[in-house]
Q: What sequence folds into this?
DNA sequence: CGAAATGCCGGGAAAACTTCCAGGGCTTTT
DNA sequence: AAAAGCCCTGGAAGTTTTCCCGGCATTTCG
């Protein structure tokens, strides 16, 4: 039997981290559980502890989960990241995988699933929630729908898409991303082209259907 | 000193419930902590245990948090519900309060805040996260009730509002209404002014929240 | 009834925005 | 090394929006 698996939990809610930690500690295969409250600090903790697996929440203030995944991988190309999110939309799954995550499960699972996934990753495998993996397959087959089109956006385009759909003006989005306003304009045109919509309203509606913007509880 | 406060935790994530429970149990004022994994079961548990306070997550599969609040209140008009959500947007707060919740706090708070809120509700009070309560007050003062603003639109403006929010371009809306496109442009400006939004996306999001456009079947 | 208010319609000029095109830098793939 | 894709930017041209204006019809009120 190998050594116990060490885990780094990244989530901005202390309460939530406590819950995960409790469950992870129940498993005999899992040893130390470190914590970080956001992407920025995750790097530092990783540096010190070099955990076997990183469990990353997607929705966090600051960098956000996806960007955190990317940055971690820049510094530690071989680190194994399991994204653990509340979102069960396929868009997020594919984004996470493309960003370099080795696994994706939602928080709706039994706690055991988290342990299983962590172990799988520790052994060098990948773990994607079965239900989602299946949907993903079906989706591939159907091919030509909105989710597919959203997936066709480049990472940068997706960022801008989210901001614009949430009501930011071209200029505000540019400021937020530290880009020229013309750049965002050009991306915006490309996005509308790829999603085959003509107006910003259509774009927002599509985003709403895809669960990328939230309009109500 | 009164009896200890009994609490019912409603959240679909077992992992998350565990975290809350741990923290709640640290307080001497809090006694039994029951759990339910969704709105449907919350009623049953409430029936058996009649807890002093219900702590309800907003985003849940099935009924969803808001609807669960309403249903609980139908059966138990005096039950004290504290909504505990990740959302810090005012929309969610107002909806929760309208649904009959006695308190609202976000998950970004220190765990102690949850305890404080639970105690306040148990004593018959209300607890709304200070930062949000302040925003809400400001919001009221300014008169930013979205529904109210929509009503302030003239009949013609409302027509145009609907068309634009549904994704039509200014020109298409003009054609549809047999108007000069300049007219629609001018109306559009007035509409945005009245609704205090800057972009078409914001306008669409508002329309979506107000149920004026439908985003999903 | 006259006057004022409000809603509706659109023109012109100026400002803002988008589109189209072109180019440079970077990384990954072949 | 070449090709391809993404990202960023700028200029020029085209389009849209804004702002300000006046005209018209209806309603309200002194």
A:
């Amino acid at each position: 039997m190998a050594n116990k698996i060490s885990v780094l939990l990244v989530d901005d809610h202390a309460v939530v981290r406590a819950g995960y930690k409790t469950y992870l500690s129940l498993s005999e295969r899992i040893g130390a559980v470190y914590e970080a409250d956001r992407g920025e600090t995750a790097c530092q903790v990783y540096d010190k502890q070099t955990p076997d697996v990183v469990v990353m929440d997607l929705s966090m203030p600051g960098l956000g989960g996806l960007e955190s995944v990317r940055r971690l991988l820049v510094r530690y190309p071989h680190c194994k990241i399991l994204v653990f999110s509340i979102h069960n939309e396929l868009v997020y799954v594919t984004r996470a995988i493309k960003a370099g995550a080795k696994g994706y499960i939602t928080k709706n699972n039994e706690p055991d699933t988290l342990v299983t996934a962590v172990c799988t990753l520790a052994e060098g495998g990948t773990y994607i929630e079965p239900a989602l993996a299946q949907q993903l397959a079906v989706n591939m087959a159907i091919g030509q729908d909105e989710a597919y089109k959203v997936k066709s956006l480049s990472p940068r385009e997706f960022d801008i898409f989210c901001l614009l759909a949430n009501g930011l003006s071209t200029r505000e989005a540019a400021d937020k991303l530290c880009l020229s306003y013309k750049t965002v304009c050009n991306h915006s045109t490309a996005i509308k082209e790829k999603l085959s919509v003509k107006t910003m309203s259509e774009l927002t509606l599509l985003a709403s259907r895809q669960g990328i913007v939230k309009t109500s509880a």
